[in-house]
Amino acid sequence: LFLATLTYDTLRFEYEDFPETKEPVWILGRKYSVFTEKEEILLDVTSRLWFTYRKNFPAIGGTGPTSDTGWGCMLRCGQMIFAQALVCRHLGRDWRWIKGKRQMDNYFNVLNAFIDKKDSYYSIHQIAQMGVGEGKSIGQWYGPNTVAQVLKKLATFDTWSSLAVHIAMDNTVVMEEIRRLCQSNVPCAGAAACPAPESDVLYNGCPEDVGLRERFAPWKPLVLLIPLRLGLTEINEAYIETLKHCFMMPQSLGVIGGKPNSAHYFIGYVGEELIYLDPHTTQPAVEPSESGCLPDESFHCQHPPCRMNIAELDPSIAVGFFCNTEADFNDWCQQIKKLSLVRGALPMFELVERQPSHFSNPDVLNLTPDSSDADRLERFFDSEDEDFEILSL
Q1: pTM higher than 0.85, yes or no?
Q2: Boundaries of each Peptidase C54 catalytic domain copy (predicted)?
Q3: DSSP letters along 365-389, please?
């Protein structure tokens, strides 16, 4: 244990602090100044849930690996971007983690959804086993698209969060599809998760005395993941401004991607550098204490975050956004439309009202989430396979 602490503490000195710059620091839709808000920046970063490689967890599938060192980095990044969605959903973007301070129950509910055991909603066990259906054997490296598809499937079991997860394929976000998904009046779990509407009339028209206490939510909170390929072997410079703008939006969940076969969770940028949380540290798996309390310090990165030049980013990424309400989604659409007017910024994806007619043309490579041709979809989006084709630039 002493050694572990020692290594962790020596690590602290290897991280550079933020550069003294007049450039604003953007973290998941929040703008900061290095000169006047350094503490706030570090507190915001530390408050994000940080998932890294772990060792000595229960064997995946009962007989599989007990550590994800060397193969689980993209799975951990998927957990981080999804944990940020759950934090926004249940705690709010303004929530902060303070070392030693007693946290609310909802915080532990979020954290427990990612703990390394088979029955947590988004555990490494669930992600690895669900990935088998996507053609990935346990212990195989994932790309951003695979982890997004798997998380979408796992979210259907998380009735507490009651999320609508949409993965926009073929570089196109179809507003009509998202509205249909989010307005599919599904009862949400408990009154705490969704406040009761002003009137006593339930959305489905059932009278109160039927004993149906579950309220129907008019809009399910949206997690929007957009797998993209921003160039052939390196990022096309024309996308850099647009990518930066994604971190400025209040709906931002950040970006998962990295360098080839080495995944990072990008949470912001300063100048020409991306700010990220790195999963490549192996920590022992965490067990709840005898009191049932979960020791949570190792799930928060307590040193300044890593940075890398934006030009080094592998072109295969997935961008994430969270829209808690319909108003948030409408606002996001407006911002994306404005972004297309920014000079020198090439749009990374298209925003359209309804499904373009060419989508249904069988001659076109149709990259929809339910495409049975998953391996072609994989080839198109994942950086582990160099044999892809760019459809349009």
Answers
A1: no
A2: 39-335
A3: ----TT-S-HHHHHHHH-TT-----
Classify residue 292 by its DSSP letter.
S
Spell 12-49 as b/e; 16+ CB within 10 A means b: eeeeeebeeeeebbbbbbbebebeebbeebbebbbbbb
Cβ atoms of 122 and 150 within 8 Å: the answer is no
Length of the chain: 393
Task: Give the pLDDT of residue 16.
Answer: 67
Contact 220, 381 (CB under 8 A): no
What amino acid occupies position 55? K
The full 3-state SS of 26-52, as one line of letters, equals EECCEEECCCCCHHHHHHHHHHCCCCC
Whether 73 is catalytic: yes
Element of type H or E holding 284: strand 283-284
- HSE toward the beta carbon, residue 359, CA cutoff 13 A: 16
- The reply to whether 206 belongs to the active site is no
178 vs 336: CA distance, rounded Å: 15
CA 197/CA 218 separation, integer angstroms: 9
Q: Which of 44, 73, 166, 245 is catalytic?
A: 73
Residue 333 among the catalytic residues: no
Which one is catalytic: 68, 116, 170, 278?
A: 278
List the domain boundaries for the chain. 26-184+218-355
**pLDDT tens, position by position, 190-246:** 434 444 333 333 333 333 433 333 355 689 999 999 999 999 889 999 999 999 999
CA distances (Å), origin 309, targets 23, 118, 162, 263: 15, 37, 37, 15
Please give the full DSSP string across 157-174, using - where no structure is assigned.
T-TTT--EEEE--TTEEE
* Reported confidence tier of residue 288, pLDDT bands at 50, 70, 90: confident
Selected catalytic residue, list 158, 280, 300, 333: 280
Q: Rounded distance, CA 116 to CA 283, Å? A: 12
How does strand 306-309 pair with strand 164-167? unpaired
- Spatial distance between the Cα atoms of 167 and 322, rounded to a whole number of angstroms: 12
How far does CA 36 lie from the centroid of its chain? 29
Stretch 23-44: mean pLDDT, rounded? 95
Nearest Cα neighbor of 124 from 164, 67, 167 is: 67
Token pair of 296 as six digits: 């949570």
